[in-house]
Amino acid sequence: MIRFENVTARYTQETGIFDLSFAVAKGELVFLMGPTGAGKSTVLRAIIRDIPIEKGIITIDKTDVTKLKQRKLPSYRRNIGMIFQDFKLIKGMTVYENISLPLRIVGLSKKMIKDRVTKVIELVGLKGKENSLSMRLSGGEQQRVSIARALVTEPDIILADEPTGNLDPIVSDDIIDILQSTADKGTTVIMSTHNYPLIRPRKKRFIELNDGRLIHQ
Amino acid sequence: MIRFENVTARYTQETGIFDLSFAVAKGELVFLMGPTGAGKSTVLRAIIRDIPIEKGIITIDKTDVTKLKQRKLPSYRRNIGMIFQDFKLIKGMTVYENISLPLRIVGLSKKMIKDRVTKVIELVGLKGKENSLSMRLSGGEQQRVSIARALVTEPDIILADEPTGNLDPIVSDDIIDILQSTADKGTTVIMSTHNYPLIRPRKKRFIELNDGRLIHQ
Amino acid sequence: MSRIIFFLTESIRALSRARIPALISSITIAITLLIFSMAYYAYVNLIGYSHEFKKQYRIEVFFNPDVEYRQGLELFNKILLIDGIEQGDFVDKEDAAAIFKKIFNKDVIEIIGDNPLPFGGRFEIDEGFRSASTMNSIVNEIKVINGVDDALFSTGLIMRLDRLVSNILGVGILIGIGIFVISIILVSNTIRLIIHAKQDDIHTFTLLGATKLFIKIPFLLEGILQGLIGSGISLLILIFLRSLLFYILGSYRMIIIEPVMLISGNIVAGCLLGLFASHRSISKYLK
Amino acid sequence: MSRIIFFLTESIRALSRARIPALISSITIAITLLIFSMAYYAYVNLIGYSHEFKKQYRIEVFFNPDVEYRQGLELFNKILLIDGIEQGDFVDKEDAAAIFKKIFNKDVIEIIGDNPLPFGGRFEIDEGFRSASTMNSIVNEIKVINGVDDALFSTGLIMRLDRLVSNILGVGILIGIGIFVISIILVSNTIRLIIHAKQDDIHTFTLLGATKLFIKIPFLLEGILQGLIGSGISLLILIFLRSLLFYILGSYRMIIIEPVMLISGNIVAGCLLGLFASHRSISKYLK
Ligand SMILES: Nc1ncnc2c1ncn2[C@@H]1O[C@H](COP(=O)(O)OP(=O)(O)OP(=O)(O)O)[C@@H](O)[C@H]1O
Ligand SMILES: Nc1ncnc2c1ncn2[C@@H]1O[C@H](COP(=O)(O)OP(=O)(O)OP(=O)(O)O)[C@@H](O)[C@H]1O
Ligand SMILES: [Mg+2]
Ligand SMILES: [Mg+2]
Fold first, then answer.
1. pLDDT tens digit sequence for C90-105
2. Domains present along chain D, CATH in parentheses
3. A72 in contact with D at a CB cutoff of 8 Å?
């Protein structure tokens, strides 16, 4: 469970998120909507503690993550799979290396890594690209790598920041299906998107932001 | 007018574009479609001479651009406004600086630069963000900067590579409207996209690629 | 004109935004200039030191035993006028006896009852004439003077000093060239790394139609600015070292390089280094 | 174990992908090691040179005028046994006369009809005893020997040499420390620039839950590898310079540092430099 209580996190006086309160249940898939600059990415970055939180409490299960000590952050973040809007791939690494990175951070055995990575590579449709450097991929392929990297650790929480911007509608739908099925297995998923047509048929709960403020949940 | 005649440009044996032939008339807006990895970006990179062309001829108006000398490239490229899929903004520059860059390259006076840049900034909806560093923008804002930078020189050709991936459908439609109106003024526009729903209502000509080969035009 | 100002403000802004890389390359330039300055300083002082050492270059002249005091003085003054003679001491019979005593620890008069030692002179040589060959020709000139019995100088010592000095000069020049080459490599490398990190931006610039010159100029200006900052840092450290040196070696005589020369030299060398290194580096990324 | 191998192959791969930065920092390390090695070499040779120069440290001993040849030899041998005396030349009347002739250009026998000069000796001093104070105590020891009239050494020259040598040693140590500090700054700066360019990747690593150690290790290994490559380059250049030196100065006597020591020293110093510099740099980006 993820709960925001009156969370404020600012970049400048007027940009950021302000006094946000909402909750997402365990195993739920929620869409985070809003126009450009609404603060969707900021919400996700707040959860992963990538920006300082000025006020308010973010609770995950029962712990207040705004109070986590610096040295507790690594293990906290390992339970979160984030798909970054700008992918954040390691340019000098291959597809395989990028996707296996979180598992190597956890310290899994080589064999287990191989099993899991092979599986997600197939899942996101990157088979055959394992050994391509990530900077030598098309935009859509890079986005798939980013998705695979978030899925590979089978985390408790998935934060997907505009995960389908470079994918065509059919593939995008497949990706949302994948996210839905992980949610069904108990993972909490928050996906930010502007793509109303893509999510409209799903009739899921969505949280809507504008100018850093909640306008619908 | 842009004409491809049996153009082949490869990254590896099987990736790239192969034996492509098509033509786009002056003042036309054409969509370039196809799934991830189809070769859309490769086509646009071939036009701007960002990749070596192995075989075939690309003619713009009457010149064969595959034969352009290295030192002719700058002036050739100044007539093309490209919206890059990965934005290619200069991180350390502000919005204003990024957008004015092509004009400074051309050598326009400070005053003219200011006029033009202010106009496109308003056009793409970035007013108020002029002095933000481009790395401090949301994904959608970055994409708008990239669009504005391509429009600001009022080029003869616009190559838009997935220009709306980080924008919501309404803004995306506005952007396509802008591209359409520049085309109506005589600019040739090629826009790559996967977003079929976005362009379907426009009933425009589209060129479809798969695996680097033409499958529809 | 406005373009130049534009480029200048641009590169100052770029520097202030990428402070760490700029600072690092300025430090590298500063270190280079420091080493340069200190090497130059050491070189100047070594030459000075060797000249001082060479003060001991002396020609000993012995007059005929029958030369009397007054005639001896005349001869002495005559020799003093020879080119290359800086100054001299007249050695009379008593002086010679003292030297004898010093060397043999015996009183010559006590031994013989009389002082059989001749008058003579001891002459120091002008700086410009302090080499084995020039001294030899002076000696020959003295020898032919009527009343002079012999003139000598200790060839071995002078040869050795000559060799030492020319060795030091030679090695010094080699080291200088070495430092120069290494400086350029180090500064180039630093700036190359900075530019390497910016190659994506450079590629973007070319895709936007920028000419090579347009891309280069900001980097060159940055290089010059880094050179200026580097020379500033090096001058600060040099001033500090100078005071430290005075404090430690207070009494010691040291040849200090003229401040104007030092400052202008550092600034010019810094700018040239920055300019050259950034030119070299940027050219590698603009084939 | 498998993790170590993983990290190792990882960093070798990283190096081979980012060849330019790796090469540049290896070159910086190589230059540093080169300067180190050459400075050390120069230092060792300077000390050697100064020792050779000091060979001219000599004590002149004069025996009483009534000391006869055989007794003189006995005294001479006695003095040779004194601690600190390396070797000696016996000076008999004829030698003394020759010295007299050399200095005063006069034949003492011609002047007096007899050779009034005493027997004596000229003694060279062991390396360990070549300082003004130790030579003074040796002289005092000699002076009390029965039959010795006087013992002298030229204090001024020795004082000057002493001072020169200790100056050179002092300055040498200062320069050594300076080189050391500058090396670390230069290598750190280079590696810092490389890491600076990777700060986005480092940030991504932390967002993926990597611990500081996990992020650090590859950089440290890379640093060590760069140190290894750097020491390799510096050794190659040193070998080349060595042959060059032999070629140019062939006949000259030079003290060559033992190859084993040079190689191991370079490798160890290179690795430490790379390790230390990368540790310092990466720590700045992992607050
Ligand atoms: N690092 C930053 N420094 C300063 N301001 C920032 C930074 N990142 C984002 N902002 C600003 O904060 C606001 C919210 O940004 P955010 O990235 O959360 O928007 P978003 O909803 O994700 O938009 P998009 O759909 O375009 O990705 C924007 O106005 C943006 O300009
Ligand atoms: N620099 C590169 N080096 C090697 N292969 C590349 C490079 N860039 C792209 N490719 C490969 O070439 C193929 C076509 O890439 P391209 O970027 O043209 O696809 P695209 O149609 O633009 O896809 P997307 O919609 O995902 O952007 C892909 O299979 C991709 O992996
Ligand atoms: Mg966002
Ligand atoms: Mg593409």
1. 888 777 777 777 666 6
2. 2-51+160-286 (no CATH), 57-153 (3.30.70.3040)
3. no
